[in-house]
Design goal:
2 copies of one chain form a homodimer. In chain A, about 60% of the residues lie in helices and about 5% in strands. The first copy, chain A, has a two-stranded antiparallel sheet with strand order 1-2. Chain A is mainly alpha-helical and about 140 residues long. Chain A has a domain of about 80 residues: Orthogonal Bundle (Multidrug-efflux Transporter Regulator, Chain: A, Domain 2). Chain A contains 5 helices and 2 strands, in the order H-H-E-E-H-H-H. Chains A and B meet through helix 3, helix 4 and helix 5 of A and helix 3, helix 4 and helix 5 of B. Chain A binds a DNA duplex (30 and 30 nucleotides) through helix 2.
DNA sequence: CTCCACCTTGGAGCGCGCTCCAAGTCAACC
DNA sequence: GGTTGACTTGGAGCGCGCTCCAAGGTGGAG
């Protein structure tokens, strides 16, 4: 297909945008419907969506927020603040800081659980190496 | 209520077990129904559940697996292996190792996204300190 | 001009992990 | 003996985040 190879146009179709962001076209439409994007995505004369670099950059940020567990609802709030324009920067920063703190806490918790799981693996490894049967005290 | 204070009985009611594990009674029943526990929980003559130390230890492990993102289905597989008894240790260990690897990968990914989010916060902080308006290039 | 892949929409469906409800049982206390 | 309250069950419901469907329009290749 190779659409958008010409000089003047750097927009992408939804399939291209999906490939570029790692999302599916379904998800991209869903995000737009749900108010997660800054504006409605541009359209070609056919009605097909055309994603700009700015769209992609924003979607990239969205995927970072999603991948760190921020709920859709909260991302929408952030997008709302950005749409409101200048003056909402303190609120935006506060929202991101709150999320950062939540992610840090989550990382710490998961890291702790991981250490316990690794110890359990070590127990299995030792057991298997020595041929010792399962101790009652450590069921599982 | 103070049930279970006597010497011979160290079992807990479902409410006590819930308090001890951080889960709800709903969730504890659900886990049991769904085959996540090693055996059906003991019952008092009234039919009420009585959780033993062994139950609590296992549930504690379940919460670690859940908190690190292991799906219910996979935990059930692990419980199935434990129920099958001796001989399944290599499979159990392999399952835990696969999970450990997934968790490590997840931690790495989240950590990377977190760094990007922190940089974005720094941009806001600098902007707010200097009174500079929002640069177009970094929408949001 | 036809074909076919890709796009559009509103709305339904799904998988997950709980979370809750209704109706009934039981133990303990007054 | 009656009331209270924690417990029991099977099954329904919910919030989240997609994921998909049906019916129809678009546009570049042959």
């Amino acid at each position: 297909m190779l659409r958008g190879v010409t000089e003047e146009s750097r927009t992408l179709t939804i399939a291209e945008a999906a490939a570029a962001t790692g999302l599916t076209p379904y998800t991209l439409r869903y995000y737009e419907r749900d108010g997660l994007l800054l504006d409605a995505v541009e359209r070609a004369s056919s009605g097909h969506r055309r994603y700009t670099e700015r769209d992609l950059g924003w979607i990239h940020l969205l995927t970072r927020l999603r991948a760190t567990g921020m709920p859709i609802r909260e991302i929408r709030e952030y997008a709302d603040l950005v749409r409101q324009g200048e003056g909402t920067e303190p609120e935006r920063m506060a929202l991101l800081q709150a999320h950062r703190d939540a992610v840090r806490a989550q990382l710490a918790e998961v890291t702790e659980h991981l250490a316990a799981i690794e110890m359990k693996i070590d127990v299995y490894a030792g057991r298997l190496a020595s041929g010792t049967p399962v101790p009652e005290a450590a069921a599982g």
